[in-house]
Amino acid sequence: MTEPSIYDPDFVRNVFDRCSGKYIAFSTWMSFGFTERWRRQCVEALALPAGPATGYDLMAGTGEVWPHLLAAHPDIERIVAVDISRGMHERAMQRLHVMRADYIEFIEDDVLASDLGDESADFIVSTFGLKTFNENQHRRLAALTSRVLKPGGRFAYIEASDPKGWTLRLPYLFHLKVVLPMIERLFLRGAQDFAMIGTYSTNFGDASEFAAMLREQGLQTEFRRYFFGCATGVRGFKPVRRDAATTPE
Ligand SMILES: C[S@@+](CC[C@H](N)C(=O)[O-])C[C@H]1O[C@@H](n2cnc3c(N)ncnc32)[C@H](O)[C@@H]1O
Prior knowledge:
Blueprint lengths: L8 H11 L3 H8 L3 H13 L6 E6 L7 H7 L3 E8 L2 H13 L5 E5 L12 E7 L7 H14 E12 L5 H22 L5 H12 L3 H9 L3 E7 L4 E7 L12
Parallel strand pairs: 1-2, 1-4, 2-3, 4-5
Antiparallel strand pairs: 5-7, 6-7
The site of S-adenosylmethionine (SAM) has 22 residues, from helix 1 and strand 2.
């Protein structure tokens, strides 16, 4: 029997189902608080104009980006969060009770198999959800981004990335390959799921190829580095007319 690919949606779902209980604490603590800062910067990069808006939080996890999104844009009317993992979904729902549940809907599904409507979103935001996709899946995600955004709609993605240059790369790899697995062995009863997330991160590289795929889909894109490339992202918008890459009002 062949091993399932680590990019198989069922495999990814299982990894996050097992991680979900400790995800928030582990990701904040093990990134020295950088993940929170990067979520806020991703929302800033979205540069959503003031006014009512509806959009998607893709690979939403337990809804870590919602406080940033709602603080920056209190007039958002609706966030539709999509995540494949039941464990992450359940924790997100617990969170919904203390947040503005009436603004947020959660869809438990593989985003690439979901039927999000054409031109249904003013924005798409996604924090740390790129690494568990391979090249082909990134291409499909770029096509989905273009399809579901309204003309003028905005997007911002961010992902932890492999920094270029040895001064940062050595501690980065040491952290992912040695520290994370050791902490899991010692404190999480030998689980290797967060170490698996480390493997996805090193395989991912950075968001530049995904940025090129979004550009091929006719989207205006800007690739961005955060903290010397330890995270990278891509932001932009869907031009109002395909033949003229006009900035939305
Ligand atoms: C590293 S977590 C990021 C969660 C959250 N956005 C954050 O800021 O921390 C990646 C999430 O992507 C979800 N995911 C992975 N593949 C997916 C897919 N094909 N469709 C929907 N969600 C997916 C996982 O279940 C997981 O919750």
